[in-house]
Amino acid sequence: MQAPNQVPFTEASELLSPADHSPTSGNCIRLPDDLLVRHGELDDYLAGQLSVRRLNAIHDSLWRAGLPGRVQALHHQKVLRRCILVTERIDLHLVWTDNHIFIKPLSPFLLQHAFFSQHISPNTSLLSSALGFLHTYTKLIHHRTDFSLALELGLLPPSVSWPAWNRFRVDLLTHITHSQQINKRYHYGELRLSRLNTAYRFHQRSWRGGFFLVYTRYQSFFTANFEWLLLAFAYFSVALSALQVLLSANQGYDSTNKVLEVFSLALGSASILSVFLAALIMAVLFMILSILNENFARRKRADVEHDFNLTEYKAYFTKD
């Protein structure tokens, strides 16, 4: 297992050269992405870029939001018709909702050996978060098509080539092999936002907020949930119309046509029965699927409660 003071890649496979990282003439340090940070603020900046403490706070509930090691390649995100949203928030990395998934670009300061060795490796908290974050990219960018998508989306520095990325990726997989090396958030892969919000509300003991709310206006909320309201309205409309037919038939307003009266009674009864039967079937199917998914997630949860070899979960990381 890798020692805490080591870098997960060699100088030969680094993606950014030392020339991209040098102190300025003032009281600032130039990061590999040309960002200037004061020397006294560097640790806070790195923590803001790598800390996943909000997810660690609800770690016991993450098994409800995602599977261990489930990270699908970028090209497969497109196959699933997901829109990839680039974010600089590390706690939103690999969080998905509906047909969107948030992905944080690979920070340039993690790609340079000297900077990593000097500023990341000495801090065990930063190191475990950095290793977990880097490990997700070995699965996100697995094929040349993934690499092309990453460059198009700005997830990698434009100077990185496909052969260089391959060397870097293999080097990472050689050094990062056990779950104890990475932050516990990265024991899980993609996380469902709706379940994260629920878990975070229970953790905060407040229903006002959540982990991350995608609705900034009431209009957006009601627009996204209008289909459910429309479906409920349709069910109640059918049921009420059928009840009206039954009441009219029972009053015998047209007793001269017994066939029409019987047909109205039968049609009204069948309409009401079909509405409640459809609702019952949907509820039962939902319960069955929920129980099956929860049992599956519980079985997989046991896999992350001890140190496991990350290479054993290749199928989860690369499954299409």
Report on the architecture of this protein.
By secondary structure, the chain is mainly alpha-helical. The chain has twelve helices and six strands. The chain has helices at residues 42-50, 53-57, 74-79, 113-120, 124-140, 144-153, 162-175, 193-204, 218-224, 226-251, 258-301, 314-318; strands at 28-30, 36-38, 83-86, 95-97, 100-103, 191-192. It has a four-stranded mixed β-sheet. It has a two-stranded antiparallel ribbon with strand order 1-2. The longest helix is centred in the C-terminal third of the chain and has 44 residues, at 258-301. The radius of gyration is 27 Å and the shape is elongated. The protein starts with 27 loop residues before the first strand and ends with a helix. Residues 314-320 have low confidence and may be disordered.
Provide key terms for this protein.
320 residues; two-stranded antiparallel ribbon; 12 helices; 6 strands; disordered C terminus; four-stranded mixed beta sheet; 51% helix; mainly alpha
